[in-house]
Recover the amino acids of this structure.
């Protein structure tokens, strides 16, 4: 509302400035205020967005798993929905995004909204890790019949993870993105959601050589059907 209001009155203030010269607005001259106010308003909006993200992470981390939300789910379908949602952001960061879906995967029993949030967080992290649009991000789904699990692998050619941070990645409130308004709960939330679904998350990384996050989830018991 403040930004829209300022943009609406700006032409009238400019007209007054042209007709009468510089004038005071509060504690500033209009010539100074005109260049400053937009930056101040954008700072307020950015700060509010950061608070919103932090509160969202805190609520997600603190909320218990709800009953009655688990249902047979196609991992490939869940991933497709996430990629449609994040398509603009992904292609804003890289020209080389690849996805390889294995056909006829067994269904899994999960809260679909929560597992989609895991995929969003991991894709977001991959996008944040790369510094060039020439760097690659890929997502792969695979079935492991030996232990009846489905693996979802997120790879990026980003900056990698420093060795001293590897053991703390899933710690609540640990973050290297303070300036971006992160509460450090993204990976902790991912681990909780995946663990609640009977699965695991593993990470492999070498500093300067990207990172690979692998989510492993059990196939639904006695699942006779499969879904692409």
């Amino acid at each position: 509302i403040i930004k829209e209001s300022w943009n609406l009155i700006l032409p009238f203030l400019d007209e007054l400035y042209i007709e009468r010269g510089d004038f005071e607005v509060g504690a500033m001259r209009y010539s100074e205020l005109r260049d400053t106010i937009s930056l101040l308003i954008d700072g307020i909006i950015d700060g509010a967005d950061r608070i919103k993200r932090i509160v969202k992470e805190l609520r997600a981390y603190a909320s218990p798993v709800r009953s009655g939300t688990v249902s047979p789910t196609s991992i490939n379908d869940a991933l497709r929905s996430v990629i449609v949602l994040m398509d603009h952001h992904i292609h804003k960061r890289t020209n080389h995004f690849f996805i390889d879906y294995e056909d006829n995967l067994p269904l899994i029993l999960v809260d679909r909204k929560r597992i989609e949030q895991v995929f969003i967080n991991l894709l977001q992290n991959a996008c944040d890790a790369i510094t060039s649009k020439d760097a690659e991000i890929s997502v792969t789904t695979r079935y492991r019949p030996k232990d009846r699990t489905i693996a979802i692998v997120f790879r990026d050619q980003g900056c990698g993870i420093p060795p001293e941070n590897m053991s703390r990645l899933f710690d609540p409130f640990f973050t290297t993105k303070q300036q971006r308004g992160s509460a450090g709960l993204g990976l902790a939330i991912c681990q909780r959601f995946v663990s609640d679904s009977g699965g695991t998350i593993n990470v492999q990384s070498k500093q300067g050589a990207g990172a690979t996050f692998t989510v492993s989830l059990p196939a639904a018991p006695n699942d006779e059907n499969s879904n692409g």
Remarks:
- The radius of gyration is 23 Å.
- The mean pLDDT is 84.
